[in-house]
UDP-galactopyranose mutase (Dyella japonica A8), 368 residues
Amino acid sequence: MPTQESSTPAQIVGAGFAGSVVARELVEAGHQACVIDKRLHIAGNAYDETDAHGVLVHRYAPHTFHTNGGHIFEYLSRFTEWLPYEHRVLGIVDGKRYPFPINRNTLNQLYDMDLDESGAEAFFERVREPREPALTREDVVLNSVGRDLYEKFFLNHTRKQWGLDASELKAGVAARIPARSNIDDRYFTDTLQVIPKHGYTQLFENILDQPNITVELEVDFENIRGEAKTSRTVYTGPIDAYFKYCFSRPPYRSLRFEHGHLPNVAHYQKVGTVNYPNDHAYASITEFKHLTGQRHTGTSIVREYPQEDGPPYYPIPRAENEALFKRHEELARQEPNITFVGRLAQYRYYNMDQVVGAAPAAAKRIIG
């Protein structure tokens, strides 16, 4: 017979990766779960849909799945077929397009050189500005590629993306985009790089397709807090919101999306995403047909505008923000029946695979 706890649904706040995977894990262990989300849809920021023109688009910026964790890939493969996809990005500098992250071809095109791999390594060694210890994003980039490349590709882009100078951000945020002496022009180098064959939303529908999982949309946790009879709450929203902003709010970076469609245009740009580090208010343009492989007579794009106000997307990696989160985390430890998991709840810049990897562990702690 089920225990009282297993027969009382766990309340899962948020239908993104963290909440959906935790819900699935709980019901497979014999529990029940009620997933709520204040949006009109499941899948969180990974939500995709066919637009009015018949093109599959990602509503909240492009999402490409990449991981070195074979077990994470195998876990999600239970719920989707995959298409291979390696994301490529170009950066616009002085009106010309260059491979990004910076690699040997970037150097050769930018400086009109003909470097081989050892020559590129020697170039980086010659121009780099040693920074030890490398504490900030600026330190990491200058230590890697030197002043000129920093100013061309990183200085203004960082200000646009984060609303701060690179010297004001922790070093970790720069580790995602290292320079390369080879000609590998993939944005990521993970061993597994794919995209769900039928879209992210269907992936989430399959994860949540269990008799003991109920999903309630357009439900704001703040409006029902304390009302539901639940054995456990799993919270994936901003941790400061859960504690009703009892301390100063840790800052987040938001985004605004401008979607558009171009009829009778096979492709708008050569790669999935083009960055605009020095020009325009938008930071990038993504063309979705590159990601999905879809065939269509027209093409759909999205421009991303980083901004301070709006829904939270990215925790801002600064020491003072981390200290403020730690104060909230201390309060979280005093909540025995609440589990905080995910990018916003843990104030961490997690990739999708990291969230998927963390969610089963959170479920096991609940079950245990």
About this structure: Residues 1-5 have pLDDT under 50 and may be disordered. Residues 116 and 344 are 43 Å apart (CA to CA).
